[in-house]
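Forum > Structural Biology > Help requests

Title: Can anyone predict the 3D structure of Probable E3 ubiquitin-protein ligase HECTD2?

Hi all, first post here. I have the sequence for Probable E3 ubiquitin-protein ligase HECTD2 but no way to get a structure on my laptop. I'd be grateful if someone could post the structure tokens.
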Amino acid sequence: GLERGAKNQFSTFSNFITTINQKKEGTGNRSPPTQLVIPNIKNVRDLPPICLDVRQKQRVSVDTLPQELKAPIPPQPSLPIRTKTVKDFQDDVEKAKSSGDWKVIHDFYSTSFDSFLEINAAFKKDASFPFNTIEDSGINAKFVNVVYDALLNTPQDVQKSVLKGIINGLLQEWKGPRTKDDLRAYCILLQNPQFSNTSTYVIYAHLLRQIAALTEADHHFLVHWSKKIAQRRFKQLVDRLLQFISLRLFPAKPEEFPPMMKCTWWIPSATKVLALFNAANSLSSPSIISYTDFYNSTLDHIDLMEEYHNWQCYGNSHRFSFCQYPFIISIAAKKVIIQRDSEQQMISIARQSLVDKVSRRQKPDMNMLFLNVKVRRTHLVSDSLDELARKRADLKKKLKVTFVGEAGLDMGGLTKEWFLLLIRQIFHPDYGMFTYHKDSHCHWFSSFKCDNYSEFRLVGALMGLAVYNSITLDIRFPPCCYKKLLSPPIVPCDHNTLVGICDVTLEDLIQVMPELAHGLSELLAYEGNVEEDFYSTFQVFQEEFGVIKSYNLKPNGEKIPVTNQNRKEYVQLYVDFLLNKSIYKQFAAFYYGFHSVCASYALLLLRPEEVEILVCGSPELDMSALQRSTQYEGYQKTDLTIRYFWDVVLGFSLDLQKKLLHFATGSDRVPVGGMADLNFKISKSETSTNWLPVAHTCFNQLCLPPYKNKKELKQKLIIGISNAEGFGLE
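Reply #1:
Sure, ran it for you. Structure tokens for Probable E3 ubiquitin-protein ligase HECTD2 below:
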């Protein structure tokens, strides 16, 4: 009901705020400036401590603040007494609807939102109680929700009165630190559904600006209070902020907003407030909404590399970049950043090789621009290990693979084949590097001690090369592996610093060894006498090559019994031993191998879950999506052969669908952008229908003869995709 007559009214609000600001600036020293006038944009753009520059190891999180950071609590003025209950309000609304007389409702809204004090008087659970802790905001959430749900169905003059009251509250003369009542008012105002309407964005922007400029201690309270908001309303708040950022970047009606040059603080303020909700979501266990709900796909259409370079050059300084807040950047956008960063590194390394060659007056050779890997299929692992070790200086060049004795030229297809076969051999149980856990369907590092961990470094380098060259791998590591891979995300200069060590919990162990984790959970929940009934000590045993070996979880562990009092410590040390200490050398080699290729600030933008998606792609196949995005050459999508093809493929089992994808593209994984990113093409093969289909994996192209019926097409297709290994030249 705000879209028509309200537009000019809200334009007046904008002018009103501007006029007030100009008057304040003209008064000199007679009174302090309002919170809306922040002469130095630094106050808006400096990152809040809860969202430190991601170059630092610390992730977006909020821990309990030390005492010295907590601002003293200023005295709070006494609140007016308001006795209206949820039922009273609902009865008033029903009477107004039936009678058409909205005066009582108008008076309630205009009074309740007239100032921060009135907001607290109306919506605080107990006006006489301070509610100064992070555990309880003191907000009557049910009343707030009922009042806001009714607001958009009231006449326009009622809705305008609310906005006028909010303006009054935002224009107050702030002196000294904010009270908890002020923070409560901000928390309530953020939930106002009117701010979904673009005509209210000027007021919304000033509200966001004030919240963004609060102290770290105040942000600390807002974050913890936000954790208590119901999931649906929490998501609405996040969506509203994302929409605000999107429409400021790409306004549907530019005339609705002030010129961008006059409100450069809008987007930084909104992003900063969004960081508070992201911190609240990260602190909640389980999280309130998915981390992907914070993605803003609009950012996929801006100059991402400019954002990235600004962040690289200016870091956490006064220059705003979305890369300072990576939670808002989608995985598709991050992939673009990583790909382009990789390409620039490849070009830089290749150029340096060329300059070195010319400076020594040697004849340039095209092969020097690539990482050329030449392997025999019969000695795949040993040849690959030798090649990568010998050409360590070339790892950041574009990868090209040659199979000895085969005529295929690598335009991408041979590289995919090399990755697939190498991973298949290395992860085979007989190879002994990794243990496959059937319960969790994932691999984990073998804890067996050995003299040389270079093959673990090879696997890490393979994963790095895959990300660097945009190849997806069929690797099944648990999520904690990727958490360890980012611990830390940048290789430390001091080689004595431990790497690949992260905080692990029983939840992490469940994803690797669910049966053992279940047993430890039962130990924690056991109600009897743990020491007498379990008879365990702080010592664990592992079998290595048929020999049982013992390891102490702490000094003299074999002499320390596990009791009801220390069992939590026992479980934590056991989990840490299994996921960190027992495999430290193996994982450290793996870590250094990965980062020898993927050393980039772009990694700092990624969550562990996003690294997994970049490495492995998605295992979920949507062949209908592939059908919709497929291109045709020599065929039309309505041709009989094409209709036969899709009828057959959509009826395939998952195993056959994966074989088809591997046959045509060289990988059975779906890239980050989904099936559409494959650029899959079906071309008409002008050969006899006695021939099998042929694939060009370099170009994700399937060459299909015009088979006469569905039965023949299905038979030839299954034979082709089930017997596909090796390359030749046409």
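The two ends are 67 Å apart (CA to CA). The CA atoms of residues 510 and 517 lie 5 Å apart.
Shout if anything looks off.
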